[in-house]
Amino acid sequence: MAFMTRQLRIEPDGVAIDAADHDSILQAARRGGVSLAYECGWGSCGACKLTLVDGEVELMFPGAPAVNPRDARRNRILACQSRAISDIIVARGPGDWSAPAPRCIEQQAILLAVEDLAPEIRQFSFETTEPIAFRPGQYAILHLGVGLRRCYSMSNLPGSRLLQFIAKRYDGGRGSNALAALAPGARLTIEAPFGACTLRREPGRKVFVAGGTGVAPILAMLREAAAARLDFEAPVDVLYGARTPADLAAGDMLAAAVARLPQARYLPVAEIAPESWPHASGFVTAAITSTIAEPAAAEFYVAGPPVMVNAVKALLRSADVPITQVHYDSFG
Predict the structure, then answer these.
(1) N or C: which end of the chain has fewer CB within 10 A?
(2) CA distance 295 to 317
C-alpha cells in the first residue's frame, strides 16, 4: 500500500524529515532518527507537546488526557497523537532536545499463545520478524486496527523474537477488547521500544510497586535483576496490589523472580480480601507506609493505573522522597 508523505520541519534545529500520513509526529521523528521529548507515548503525560508553527494536523486520539482547550488556543499539540495532514513546521520548547536517536522499530508480529492469568487478564505471547532491542520496563505500541493503537509493557526479557504482554479486558474498552479478541495466528504491527522507567543497577534500597497489569514492567525489571544476578546490597521490597487476591494475575511469576534476589521479599496486597487472607489488605499506599520505614532512603519503581500511581507519588512526596528516586509508568 502506498502512503502519502508530508514534510515535517522541526525548529529551531531546522531538521526536516518525511512523515507518512499514517504516522504520528513522534513516530515519524523516531523513524527519521530525531529524538523528541516524550514519556508515555499515548497522550497521558503531555511531555511531547510541541508548538504548531505552520500547517495542519489531525488529532488521532481526541480523548487523550493531556489534550486541553488552553493548548489549542496556543497551537500546542501532542506529538504522540497528532499526524500531519499537510507539510508542517513545529517548534520544540527551550528545554526539549532534538538530536540523532535510535530509529523506531516497527515490525509485523504473530500471536503465538494466549494464557489466562486471572479474570479478564491474559498473557499474550507474540513473535516478531526480528528481535527488537528493548530494556526491561519499556513498552510497545500495538496496532490493533485502523487508528487503534494501544500501549502495553513487555513482561519478558529481551534477546529473542518473543514479546510478552499482560493485559486486562475492560468493558467498553476498544483497545482491550480488540486485543482480547485475537486468536493465535493473528498478525499485527508492533512498534517499540518506548518508555524511560527502567532499572538502575546501582546498589541501594529498592522498592517496586505494581498495581493490576502494571505488574508487567515490574516483572520484567525483576527478571532482569535475577538474570544478571544483581545484589543491591540492601533490602528489596516488591509490593503487588490488586482489587482481590484472584486479581493478582502474575503473583506466582513475580514471587519466583523475587526468590532469586538477595534480601528481597514479595508483599501481595488485596484491596478486598477474605478474613483468611494471610497478607496485607487495603490500598497499596497503606502497605507502603506500614512496611517501608525510611522511604526517603529508597529508590522506587511504580507501575499501574493512573489513580494508583498518582496516589503513590503523592505519598512519596509527602515523605520527602526526592523525585529523582521515583521512576514510574502510569497507564490504564
Answers:
(1) N
(2) 10
